[in-house]
Design brief:
10 helices; 3 strands; 3-stranded antiparallel β-sheet; 229 residues; mainly alpha
Length: 229
């Protein structure tokens, strides 16, 4: 890969120099630009982010029970928080977008920026292992005041569903993208939420994978509250 000043500067802000620069390039590439895009890295980074934040909260909020820790974590990894961290990293100017996505404002779209941030975490994990990715996550969240008071924030559907299941000692739900519809720069994601023990699936649609998962979780909650009070 030829040198790219914007990506070189991004590595400085990440405080990570990639052994495989192709991972970095892929992490900032939207599917509207190339078939070699960030979505698989985003999938990986989502899991790494959740584990790194869980470990951070376990140490920092030692007196909080499991349910409250889950709620604080949900506030930290939600789209709004990740979007702001992406802006702090100046990610908009590094994105590679197709012409249609760029014209529709994709560089500033919160869902895209949050997804790219997760993809970058996944890229660092693939490039240098979990310890390097965890250090990156801790640096990104260092300026956020993490306190037990964060638990009072409103729960999103995925968090509420997770707590409902945990309170009944059931496995966490599985989410799967069933289909994507529309042009690359205006896609909607049809996502399935499954609870194995109940042999139940519900679906939701959103403008991003994350939004689709929230919609599917909301549909599942509505079913559970009506049928399993």
């Amino acid at each position: 890969m030829s040198p790219n000043p914007a990506l070189a500067a991004l590595q400085d802000r990440l405080q990570h120099r990639f052994a495989d620069p192709q991972l970095l390039q892929r992490a900032v590439t939207h599917r509207s630009y190339s078939a070699d895009h960030y979505e698989r890295l985003e999938f990986l980074g989502d899991s790494v982010l959740n584990l790194a934040i869980s470990s951070l909260l376990y140490d920092r909020l030692a007196d909080l029970p499991e349910g409250d820790l889950s709620r604080v974590r949900a506030n930290l990894v939600r789209q709004e928080t990740l979007h702001q961290l992406a802006l702090d990293l100046q990610l908009p100017q590094t994105l590679r977008l197709g012409e249609g996505e760029a014209k529709s404002g994709g560089q500033r779209r919160p869902s895209i920026l949050a997804d790219v941030l997760e993809a970058l975490i996944g890229a660092v994990y693939r490039d240098a292992g979990y310890a390097a990715a965890e250090r990156l996550v801790h640096r990104l969240f260092a300026r956020i005041d993490i306190t037990p008071r964060m638990q009072a924030a409103e729960k999103d559907p995925k968090t509420e569903l997770q707590e409902w299941l945990q309170g009944r000692r059931m496995k966490l739900p599985a989410y799967r993208v069933v289909a994507t519809v529309g042009a690359a720069h205006r896609q909607t994601f049809d996502v399935e939420c499954e609870i194995v023990e109940l042999h139940r699936t519900e679906r939701g649609i959103g403008g991003s994978r994350r939004a689709g998962e929230q919609a599917a979780a909301a549909a599942m909650l509505a079913y559970l509250k009506a049928n399993h009070p």
